[in-house]
Structures are given as structure tokens and as C-alpha cells.
Amino acid sequence: MRLPLLVTLLPLLLASLALAAPSSSPYAPSSFIRKDSIAIPAGWAKRAPATGNEVVHLHLGLAKRDQLGLEARLQQISDPDHADYGKWLSADDVAEYFSPSAETRSIVSRWLQAHGVEESHVTKRSDMGNSISFSVPLAQARAMLGDADFAYFQHRDSGEERFTATSYSLPREVAPHIDAVFGLANFARGASFRAPYKMVMDDDLEASSAAPSSCQFNLVTAQCLRDLYGTADYKPSGKGQFIGISGFLEEYANYDDLAQYEADQRPDAKGYKFSEVSINGGLNDQSKPGGEASLDVQTVAGIAYPINSTYYSTAGRPPFKADAFTPTNTNEPYEDELNYLIGLKKLPSVLSTSYGDDEQTVPLEYAKRICSDIAGLTARGVSMLYASGDNGVGDTASVCKSNDGKNTTMFLPTFPSTCPWVTSVGATMRFDPEVVTTKEASFIISGSGFSNYFPRPDYQKKAVAGYLAKIGNKHANLYNHTGRAYPDIAAQGSRFKIAVKGKFGAVSGTSASTPLFASIVALLNDARFKAGKPQLGFLNPLIYGLEGKGFNDITQGSATGCGTDGFPALEGWDPAVGYGTPQFDTLKKLVGA
Ligand SMILES: *[C@@H]1O[C@H](CO)[C@@H](O)[C@H](O)[C@H]1NC(C)=O
Ligand SMILES: *[C@@H]1O[C@H](CO)[C@@H](O)[C@H](O)[C@H]1NC(C)=O
Ligand SMILES: *[C@@H]1O[C@H](CO)[C@@H](O)[C@H](O)[C@H]1NC(C)=O
């Protein structure tokens, strides 16, 4: 994973730290500018002010040398009509765009030096040198961050506590060189998108008139999904790629439960195991099987066998909690995971992530930075799939309010699905035909919406304009008409038969849809490799270019929520389930395999 470039960059940053002339604080408070801020989101309350004795762990994202250059190149290599389609970048190529410039390194180093932060204080530095961590006493953190209002906050339902500020500033000359201070003004919780596990007895099974005959509404098996989407007869080579599965929040993937699932639903996969990788000390404790982790690794085994898979367990909860004199980790899971992956020589072909947050609980500059990291991985040729969420356009009417102090009634979009470089996956249920999931039947509603942070990317402008023309003024004041719309596509997400702690039950969620769709993308890659073609990588320009070809159009149901009937599924693309669910055989032909 160590890049040659890293070898040259690290000493440079260290050298610039060491060479900077010490000086007393050269930054007058009047020259600070606001970097990020957030209102305390619903569900959180300020519990206590800082005591003054805290040690604060700061994790800076340094500006990247050429983010726009990377995005421009990504647009070319992901455009099926471009001569360079599929020429995904190497780790070194991305480092060229993403490492900080010499100017950024020296300005940041001088600022840190002025506050007595020496190279020996730096506890962590990313391979590309674009993120660094260190700890400082509270008073010093406040001096560096324009008197940031550090305090203790608590999440009412979970009791989760965190020590953060609702806004922070940086000196005017430093601000353009730091994208974000991770963890500050950030109330992301990284929820996993799955409904509580439901025990289903075999005698509960509801007969379905559906084709295929392997499908039963109450308990959906791997065979049903393989028959439904047409992958059952495809014989993968399994070579040349592996599927990545994101694990956060101490969700651990269990080998015994996987073996039990295989015996029940994929006897031919007997003995197939995922590999595990620990990021930042993430564990995979076999005595604590997690429902989300089980759903993810079992679905991938059930659909993508024999393609290998890797479970990435990233430690920590976002962002951080500090006790007096005991700085804890910054616990910035998204950033830690993406940063780790982006430096690897060998990456998964597909990454399936079943976690997300209300967009307004993460600050804008932070969201932009995470989205930029995602663009970097996408440019490496990784299909970055994220669950669209389980609450339709938002949970109950009482929570569907803006977080800017004005309490404006609005739909609540989900991040990272709102990032234009991800492929966002919605959820369907039933088979004859497939429809948008409902809370009554499948406990979850396919997540849906429009970003308030990211403008609509070109690849989806035509499709979204077509939908908006059809719905006219419906909910016109509840969503952002210029924002990135999601999901892009969908897959079954209702009542998957999954083993957890030795027992089978039904699990629903876009958390189920995402590893399912990821597996089908990996199978398409497998077919492409056989035809001598590169992996599919960033899917959205391809998918929107197909204008629905290769997908089952879902036209029944609606992504309800916020006390409304939400966005209805209509003919063609819609924000309930995107273009619909995959037809493997047709897609295989369409991608030239
Ligand atoms: C899959 O992983 C196993 C275990 O790490 C390895 O032995 C095998 O070669 C891999 N298969 C492929 C096709 O890469
Ligand atoms: C917004 O809602 C919160 C919580 O219900 C309330 O405390 C606050 O006063 C409201 N603000 C406005 C401007 O209505
Ligand atoms: C709507 O989205 C755009 C980005 O596309 C953003 O600039 C604007 O602030 C958003 N509007 C609201 C009300 O959040």
C-alpha cells in the first residue's frame, strides 16, 4: 500500500514543518473566516460546556492539488463514448491530483508551527499527505480555530455523547488550504440502513403467484434473487477482482453464520469465506455477530460466489468524544476508510456501503471533502455503491425540518447518496411486478431525494428533468429542484433470509439492496474480463446513457415519508427507485460482454 510518491512527500512535509521559522501567533482574530458551521440537529442537545481541561484531537484535510483536474479526467474515462473509457487511474495518478501542493504544505506547516505544533505532535498522516492528525489542549485549539465553541453534546435516543463545536474558523490565508477539519460541526452518526431483524417461521410463508417459482414474499433467498435478476445460469470465473464491503459501528461479520447461510442457500459455495481487513484498529469479533455485517457478507456470497470478497472493518464512531486529558481517536469512519483505500495498489472492483446520514447533520465542507475522496476511488475504477436510506423522503413529519434554525418543512436527503460520484441504490419488494418497498410490508421505504449540497450532475439532467415535468408542482416547496437526485437504480431490499447468531430471520433495507446490486456489478465485470474489457468502474454515465435499457422499470409504489405520499415511481427514471432493477443478461450484452 505504500506509494513511491509517499516516500517523497512525507519528508517534504516534515521538512517544511521543521524549517518553518517559529513566531508568536501571527494571526489576528479579525482575519479569521468561517469554514463550516451547523445548527444542532434534531435529536441532539448541548449537555455541558467545555471544562477547559480537554485535549482536542484535530484531524485536518489539506486541500488537494487538483480536484477539478481529477473530476475532468473522471468524466472522460467513465464516458462510454470516449476513446479513454475504462482507462481507470493508478494510485500514483490519483496521488498526482490529490496530494497537497508545495504552497499548501508550507502554509499549513507555518500555521501549525506558529501554534507550537511540531512534527513530533503529528500522530497520523495519510499516504498522500493530504490529511494529518494531532492533539492540542483546548485553549490552543480554540486559538487556532477562531474561538470555536467546543461543548459536550448528547444524542437523546442513544445517549451517545460527543465533544465538538457547531462552527469553526480558520485564518484567512490558511482557509483555502484546508478543505475540512473532520469531526468539527459534524453530527453524523453513520446509521446502517436496515430494519430490525424479524424472525420468520417457515409456516408464515406467504404463497406468491410470482415468477420465478423460487420466490416467496416473506423470506427471500439467494436462489430467488438469482432467478429474478437472471444470474443463476451465469458461470463466473471469479478471477481478476474482489468485492469490498464496508463495515462500521462495530458491526462484525461472522464466519459460522456465513457457513450456515451457504449450507441453506448456496450449497455449491460451501467453504467460501470473505477476507477481513482492519482499518484504524477495526475488529471483527467472532463472538459478536452483527445483523448488518451478516446481511452484507451473506448476500455477496449468495449472489457473487465464487468472486472473492473483503470485509473492511473501520473502527470508531464519528466524529469524536474527548475526556479531560484523554484525547480519543478522531473516529472519522468515512474519511478513515476512504483514505486507507485510496492509497492501495489493489482495490476492490466494487465497494458496497450500507451506511449513511441525513445530509444536514454533516457540514457542507466536510461533505464536499468526503465526496471528493469518493471521486478519487471512482476514478481508480471502483464502483462506489451506497444505500439510499430506509425512510423514503424522510421519516415522520415532525423531523422533516431544516436545520438552519428556521425549521422549514422539507424532505431530508441522505449523504453520501447525494454525492454525484456514488451510485445510489434504492429498494424494491414483491416480484409480479416489483414495486417500491413499503413500511407495512417490508418495514422500510426506499430512500429518495434531492441534495441541498451537490448540484445536479450532467449525466442525470435529462432523466431528472423528464420526471420533474411529469410531477409538476407536487411537493414543489419540499425539495431542492437543482440538486443531485437519487437513487440511480434499485434492487430487492425486502425480507432477505439471513443467518445471525445461528438463527435465520428476515432482514430488509437498502442495506440488502446494495450488496445485491454490488454483486451483480461484479458478475458483469466478470463477463467483461472474459471479453478482454476493463471493469465497469463509475456506473452513472453508463446507466443514464442507457436510458433504462437493461433495467426493469418499476412503476408502482412511492417513496413516501415526512407525512406525504412522497415521490411516486413512474415510467422511466424516478427518485423512488431510479431506473429500476437489473436484468443481468441484457446488461451483459449492453456492456459488450
Ligand atoms: C480468493 O481468495 C482466496 C483466499 O485468499 C485465494 O486463495 C484465491 O486465489 C482467490 N481467488 C481468486 C480467483 O482470486
Ligand atoms: C424550531 O424547533 C425547535 C425544536 O422543536 C424549537 O426549539 C425552536 O424554537 C424552533 N425554531 C423556530 C424558529 O421556530
Ligand atoms: C439547493 O441546492 C444547491 C446546490 O445544487 C445549493 O446551492 C442551494 O443552497 C440549495 N438550496 C437550499 C435551500 O438548500
Automatic annotation (TrEMBL):
Catalyzed reactions: Release of an N-terminal tripeptide from a polypeptide
GO CC terms on record? extracellular region
Q: What keywords are assigned to this protein?
A: Calcium, Glycoprotein, Hydrolase, Metal-binding, Protease, Secreted, Serine protease, Signal, Virulence, Zymogen
Q: Which SMART domains match?
A: Pro-kuma_activ
Record flagged with keyword tRNA processing: no
Signal peptide location: 1-20
The annotation note on the cofactor reads:
Binds 1 Ca(2+) ion per subunit.
GO biological process assignments: proteolysis
Domain Peptidase S53 residues, every copy:
219-593
For whether the record's keyword set contains Signal, the answer is: yes
Please name the top-level EC class of this enzyme: hydrolase
Q: What is its EC number?
A: 3.4.14.10
Instruction: Give one GO molecular function term.
Output: tripeptidyl-peptidase activity
Q: Where is the active site?
A: E292, D296, S511
Subcellular location as annotated? Secreted, Extracellular space
Cofactor(s), names only, from the UniProt record:
Ca(2+)
Sequence positions that bind Ca(2+) = D553, I554, G572, D574
Q: What does this protein do?
A: Secreted tripeptidyl-peptidase which degrades proteins at acidic pHs and is involved in virulence.
What's this protein's name?
tripeptidyl-peptidase II
In which organism is this protein found?
Answer: Jaminaea rosea
